[in-house]
Amino acid sequence: MQRQNFSLACLHRECELNYSRLARLTEEDLCLGGSFKIKNAQKSILGFKVIELAKFTSTLFIRVESTRPKWLPSIELKARIYRDAKMAEVIEWCSDSTIPWALVERKGPQSRDEKWQWNIFLGELLYQALRHRRITQVQSS
To answer: 37 in the Ramachandran plot: left (φ > 0), alpha (ψ -120 to 50) or beta?
Structure first.
């Protein structure tokens, strides 16, 4: 089995890309409790809600709602946005799994690249939302 070496610089680059994707989607600063949804032609919904707001950071709750089998859990993420550093990273997924701060720290059945996988997954979600933007509706509430 070949070990992969994940550099912090590559993770930072992915977090910077996620920040820029989120900035293009929101196009405005969201306040605490603010939310918006993006719908596509297949009736999947990507919902965003600001659940925490601080001087330099915001925490978003992101939920993917789509038609799925009942046994398949819904996808829920929490992402922290660092406005001063212009970065966004996944800090929690599916309501019960917190990503450790350090890349080498693991608790429970997490793989070594867990943090990478979830940040790349967030990037893919945001990329698809931007790609299908012409067929989406953004709603503020």
So the answer is: beta
